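MODEL INPUT / OUTPUT PAIR
PAIR INDEX: 1
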Amino acid sequence: MIGGGVVTSLFNSAVLAAISTDNHTALAPTGPQAQHIFNDYKAFYTVCIIVYVLTVAIALIASRRHRQDTDGHKGEAHPPLPPPQLQLDPTREAKMTFWVNVCIAATVLILFGLLFVDFSTARAIHQFSSKPGAVNIVVTGHQWWWEVRYDDEHPQNVFTTANEIHVPTGRPVKIVLQAADVIHSFWVPNLTGKKDMIPNHSTELWFQADKPGIYWGQCAEFCGFEHAKMRLFVIADPPEVFDGWLNAARTPSRPPLEQIQKQGQQVFMLKQCSMCHTIGGTPAGGRVGPDLTHVMNRYTLAAGAIRNTPGQLAGWILDPQVIKPGCRMPQNNLSPHDLQALLEYLRTLQ
């Protein structure tokens, strides 16, 4: 927890308003990779508009000429019959052939031009991976949540979180993508393009956030029943704020102090919670579900399905199938006292 309470203080109306704001769009790039992709899109879009306008204009001209030819024969008892063999005027035929060749050549040049723009964009994005000082993160797609592991050359500094990726602004980020079950696709449109996550095959993705903010991401490959509720967001912080968050995230959970919190920890350990979840600094080491060491510092639960509030958390614990049908988390039949104690304990995980 940054400075003992900075992260919690961020979870206020301003943060909730930022999360609810719809900025899930590639039309608002905030990093060099997204900017290259946006420039590529503008080039293709401009060409499509020009081609569409020219096509419609030619169609309207042809329609007008046809109408004029038809009006010229009105009032005649019998329209003239076509000649037995249609023979075009040589001059007109040469003119038509010339314009057909011009259109073919223009089409080929346009396609090759767009191909060059596409290759240039891919090359610019790929060259970004050579920049030093990158943050190394491994993201694993599960049905239906995101496991986020921050790697480090010192094993004691490696830690895991879920569904939220904190990154520093102005610094390259290397994402190693993996899939634990089926094919997923990582996509944060404000920062980078889509990248598939294939089981037993790791891939890499690079991006950089130039502007602080909260950027929604989404699984872009249909991966099962709750695919639409497999969201994440990238939190881009100034470097000094990110360093504070990073140091806090590496620390284990604090032991509970109050009696009801200790009872809640016992509920967590004795029930099935500890079989699926990890809490650093405790014997709980389950790997089926997300790591809960600092769960109360997260803005949402269930991969963006609900906000992280006490009421939403209680509903998620008791019956997650109501909120996210088909998820791997089972129902928990807890007494009101055990549920309250568990909530009080989870509130200490900051």
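PAIR INDEX: 2
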Amino acid sequence: MCGRYVSPEQGAIERAWHIGRGSPGAFAARYNVAPQQGNPANYVPVVRRADAGELELVRLQWWLLPSWSREARIKYSTFNARVETVATAASFRGPLKRRRCIIPASGWYEWQELPSGNLPWYLHAADGALLNFAGLWDRWEGGGETVESCTIIVGPANESFGKVHDRMPFALSPDRAERWMDRKLTDAGKAMELLQPNPEDLIVFHRVGTRVSNARNQGVELIQAIQGG
């Protein structure tokens, strides 16, 4: 799955998507983003199409809150959507047709399960570019409150990383990312066709220290390779 990732600073996202000023802005990079509900200070940057069709950079809760929920918080985990069930699950099937988005990332973490304990790994683009995670978003309204939230779609890991962990997010190429956010595309099946396994040469990975296991820890040192990684 994808339960921790590195979120780029505002300027990097704006430059990659040719929106905004393309310079350091309101938010900095975060090196240990964890999914949470109900805390706007921890919302994550998301690229989507606005109602008028232009690209916009917004910050959303990373834990999808379905529009039909009776309350502003839900008990089950929706920060990831499994590709096998995203088209049929009640929380995701509507957004898959109408509210697709991109969650920009510098990289993400996965934990390898071993008898001796779980070992964290950091994954990122081989060329250092930002990754375009395929995501969904939704808007909940109730009691005078509005919550916009998102989820990251995950599927089977590619062969190179499958020895470490069995799942990974879908990192879309720029052209696929553009099509993913096309508001005219409302056919869920055609949208699903854009979710292809990550190419073997797209992602590289290395072992990192266990400090990343605590979401309170932050800093660029979390992504640095450790000896034996």
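PAIR 2 NOTE: The chain is about 15% helix and 35% strand.
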